Amino acid sequence: MPLEDCDADVDLAVSLAYGSIKLAAPIYFGDMSFGALSGIPNIALAKAADLTETLAGTGEGGLHPEVRKCKRITVQWASARFGVDLSTLSAGMAVVIKIGQGAKPGIGGHLPSTKVTDIISATRKIPVGTHALSPAPHHDIYSIEDLEQRIWALKEATGKPVFVKVGATNYVAYVACGIARMGADGMILDGFGAGTGASPLVVKDNVGLPIEVALPVVDEALRRECLRDGFSVIAGGRVSCSADAAKLILLGADAVVLGTAALIAMGCIACGMCHTGKCPALLTNAAAYTTHETLSLDWATSRLVNFVKGFSEGLKILVSGLGFKSVKDIVGRKDLLKFNEALTYSKKGVGY
Asked: What is the pLDDT of residues 88-103, one digit of tens each?
């Protein structure tokens, strides 16, 4: 369909967490911590989410003081609990219990010692120059019943909806159903190839499932168990453009994660130096109280806002081209996709 024939009047608004969170577009900026990023990018992501009425994850390790002032953020409750207290957990629109991530499922978090500077030490409450290591499991969550207890404790303490973040692995459909049954308001499903600032290459390159494989199985399982209505599925893993987003929504996502793509919008050149603290684009360099060389906050925020606008326009064109007026109408419409038989999920051992 020629672009001039596409109806731009497409509604991209979505509701998450049983209607408690409203987004103008189905976009979630991925969880990137203050420490993994240098501070200014964290603020830019949060401000851009406020300006575009989307949502920004903040990653583990507490909040930058300026990020705390923003409204459209989620606060992560990860296994090490670095920098987390009740006031921090209550600062966002939702709490995210991080069980795993797509880049390294089964492995805990790691912020290299070179990036644990004075300000990160103060935020995370750990000594300067030490590795910030998060254990692989939550040592108070060893069963689905333990997860239920933590979900409801966080809901009661904060009054906010709770999401659970997991990596895409075999039998993740059963995990998703358990998360929904235990009272969570949604899940973040992170696929193979998702971004990370510090992960062993052997894990990053070989562990986990592509999001296109795991997502439809999760969506079908939740629907079969009558758990899908109101329960939100946010999906990520190498989402870089509106076409990627449209495909994931058709496969069953309510919203998509933009992580590395958001960094590229702010100038990332993908040089692979995130873990060193010497980022030439000033995105993942070691955070400091004062520095002569910093990213421009206004520039980074405007770049992100422009990115969201362009991304949204592309998504509108695709939704309109499919003959729909609302992005909500295409969630889970796998019949509108042509599957590559060589990549069909039923052949990958993850069927439900």
From this structure: 999 999 999 999 998 8
Q: 253 and 233 in contact (C-beta within 8 Å)?
A: yes
Nearest C-alpha neighbor of 108 from the set 99, 121, 97, 96:
99
For residue range 332-342, list pLDDT tens digits in order: 999 999 877 66
What's the average model confidence in pLDDT over 214-243? Answer: 97
d(CA 26, CA 211) in angstroms, rounded, equals 17
Q: Can you tell me which residue has the tokens 């894990």?
A: 203
Please name every residue paired with 259 in a beta bridge, in sequence order, or none if there are none. Answer: none
Q: Pick the range with the lowest mean pLDDT from 191-200, 276-285, 336-345.
A: 336-345
Round to whole Å and give the CA distance between 105 and 170: 11
Structure tokens at 211: 């999001």
Partnered with residue 74 across adjacent β-strands are 57, 94
Q: How confident is the model at residue 205 (pLDDT cuts 50, 70, 90)?
A: confident
Per the CB < 8 A criterion, the answer to whether 131 and 116 are in contact is yes
Decide if 175 contacts 214 (C-beta within 8 A): no
Q: Where are the domains of the chain?
A: 3-347
The pLDDT of residue 310 is: 98
**What is the token pair recorded at 116?**
């644990």
Cα-based distances in Å from 227 to 153, 186, 189, 220, 349: 21, 10, 16, 10, 23
Is the pTM higher than 0.90? The answer reads: yes
Work out the angle at residue 147's Cα, subtended by the Cα atoms of residues 27 and 166, and round it to the nearest 5 degrees: 35
* 19 vs 161: CA distance, rounded Å: 10
Cβ atoms of 113 and 205 closer than 8 Å: no
CATH of 3-347, one of 1.20.120.420, 3.20.20.70, 1.10.150.120, 3.60.150.10: 3.20.20.70
Please report, for residues 307, 308, 336, the alpha-carbon distance to residue 242 in angstroms, rounded to integers and kept in the order given.
Answer: 11, 10, 16
Buried b (16+ CB within 10 A) or exposed e, 224-257: eeebbeebbbbbbbbbeebebbbbbbbbbbbbbb
State the chain's mean pLDDT as an integer. 92
Residue 95 DSSP symbol: E
Answer with the residue of higher pLDDT: 209 or 350.
209
